[in-house]
Amino acid sequence: MTTPTSTAAPPIAVAMSGGVDSSTVAAMLHAEGAPIVGLTMQLWDQRRLAGAPGMAPTGKGRCCSTSDVYDARAVATQLGIAYYVVNYEDRFERDVVRNFVEQYAAGRTPIPCSLCNTAVKFDQLLVTARQIGAEQVATGHYARVGFNPASGRYELRRAVDEAKDQTFFLWGLNQEQLSRARFPLGSLTKPEVRARAAALGLATANKPDSNEICFVPGNDYGAFLEAYAAEQGAPLADTSGEVVSTDGTVLARHGGVHRFTVGQRKGLGVARGEPLYVIQLDPERRQVVVGDDTALYAHELRASRSHWISGEPPGEPVRVQARIRNRHTPAPAWAEPLPGNELRVRFDEPQRAITPGQTVVLYQEDLVLGGAWIDSRTT
Amino acid sequence: MGAVYFDNNASTPVLAEVCDAIGPALRGELGNASSIHQRGQAAKAALERARTQVADLIAADPAEIVFTSGGTESDNLAIFGAVGQAPPAHVVTTRIEHHAVLNACEELQRRGHEVTYVGVDRQGRVSVDAIAAALRPETALISVMSANNETGVEQPVADVALMARQAKVLFHVDAIQSAGKVPIDVGRIGCDLLSLSGHKFHAPAGVGALYVRRGVRLHAQIFGGRHERERRAGSENLPGIIGMGAAAALARGYDSTRVTALRDRLEAGVLSAVPDCGVVGEGAPRVGNTANIWFDGIEGEALVIALDLRGFCVSTGAACSSGVIEPSHVLLAMGYSKARARGCVRFSLGRRNTAEEVDALLAIVPELVAKQRRLAPRKIARTA
């Protein structure tokens, strides 16, 4: 067990999830001779909602499962580094889970990973890291961070591996956070990372990627929302109602707007010739509005709580490529900062399924300018 | 200087004399204590010698000692063994017991028995009157620890025993955190059952004992051969038991004055150098090795990690609680707020610790706490 002393360089805290990416980060930094400390965040107790209606009986979700902690610890032991599990369940529930539930209840489609990064991983974890003597936090994110001497600012750039790029979830980081972030995988491709993990003999080298929301087992978020609300003794408001077409024709009934998301095609309970998609959710009228594919397209979005990585919004509209989903190809647009931290994004071409509750992230080539939370779309 | 070990309430290092005593058993010089042959007889002799040594530690008769796999099994055997398969019974215990007792009691409840959990005062002491008030005609057992593992606060077990005897209720004492720290005399306490754990007083982990007063009927919980007077089946863990015997012999002559002075030095040093902190259970009788200190405005977990990285092994409380979100049930029962309970760190000293080690700790704790407070989000309240 390495025990960094007060005279040594401050260690780098590595956020170890138990997956192959963060395991490889720990092994890479360790191989470089950097003093490191492994930290695993315990964020959610999977046993909490286990056995509730629609939930697995034993809580087999990915987040913070015993097996993930076991894997992370095994890698730490293999490397011979100090390793600790830190418990942020309170913070995660307050800042991420509650928001997730409230957003769905409000007819929006939330994106918990962005909140987790800014509110937990690069906030609480960074605080702990500094409290225990580290000055930086390294993660397995696919992104690049660097200091630009010309501007005197830290910059966030897309990963070299475009398919794995995770800047969509990191746009909320500020200068202070970026100055303390290390993303060693940003210039590697996923196959390269797996090859390194295998070459280093890491136990996690062949562990499959996780793509679901970590605290929602099987991605059945509807069951999660209902189970969580029931556990809190505050069942979700009844938002069951009508499925209507864009012209207001009632087509079917639905069990609650929180079970739908914009762009969704399956499970609408409507049998019609041409495919129908969810166009809009209206929790007040308890309506799910459906229409054909063309109705999903819009030219413009309005967003709020905008954040600019440089620290200040541009004084005038800027030419950007804007991304509205993780796997969405950034599309050319004008981004116009509005008073009150709001943002208007006007795309050159209409974009499909702009979804309230999701984020819009602004790029200039591989540089991330910032982003904001989508409120509405207009044609 | 290697890592400084201030976590003796979690586990103690096996002493060299204990290792020496265990050696023959590990080298195959002993057989199975149930065997007829001479090697088996040697094992039996070693087993009974250890039983006498453990009995002597608590002034019991060797026949009253049942060896177990550790403190948790001792507590479980006492509780389930006393309540047995009887018709629904009632048990009285306290809210600050170790989980070996609390979770066994929860299992009793699942099996249809009833349990009353008596609270403690601000200093972490249970009152005899509160326990007496909880008794019912069908109460079968009272279980109270002699000293708390997190705070070191001692409980009035002799007074409880007197009351229990008058009420004709069996009384179990979890003495796991007292053994090796303070003298124990089961006759003076007047209890019927008393749990011990070897690794809390310099024997290896994996061995414990339950004192069962002569005449007390105990329902076995493990069935097999006729070991331990049919109270606990299973071939004896001879290396562990011999080690526990040797450790018990060493503990008998142990004088805790030096360690108590070190603990007092640690507490005084921290309190004089760090603002907004205090000693948990201050003013109450406490075992001499334990200092549980609350620091407002920090998370105990972070201070424990920071200290570990600087070469000091300490704890936030019970070792079993690591990675668990709920603040200590002991501190909450004492009336501490959740925030303050999360800011507690336990320093539990042992006979190997030195004044230099305490001073080395005192040299860094004030700056670490100050740094952590400076970096802490404002949300962590600095008030109780």
Structure description:
Chain A is of the alpha/beta class. Chain A has 3 domains: 208 residues, Rossmann fold, CATH 3.40.50; 55 residues, Adenine nucleotide alpha hydrolases-like domains (SH3 type barrels, Roll), CATH 2.30.30.280; 83 residues, Elongation Factor Tu (Ef-tu), domain 3 (Beta Barrel). Chain A contains 7 helices and 17 strands. In chain A, strand 1, helix 1 and strand 2 form a beta-alpha-beta unit. Chain B has 2 domains: 129 residues, Aspartate Aminotransferase, domain 1, CATH 3.90.1150.10; 237 residues, Type I PLP-dependent aspartate aminotransferase-like (Major domain) (Aspartate Aminotransferase, domain 2, 3-Layer(aba) Sandwich), CATH 3.40.640.10. By secondary structure, chain B is an alpha/beta fold. Chain B contains 13 helices and 12 strands. In chain B, strand 5, helix 6 and strand 6 form a beta-alpha-beta unit. Chain B starts with a strand and ends in a 9-residue tail after the last helix. Chains A and B meet through strand 3 and helix 4 of A and helix 10 and helix 13 of B.
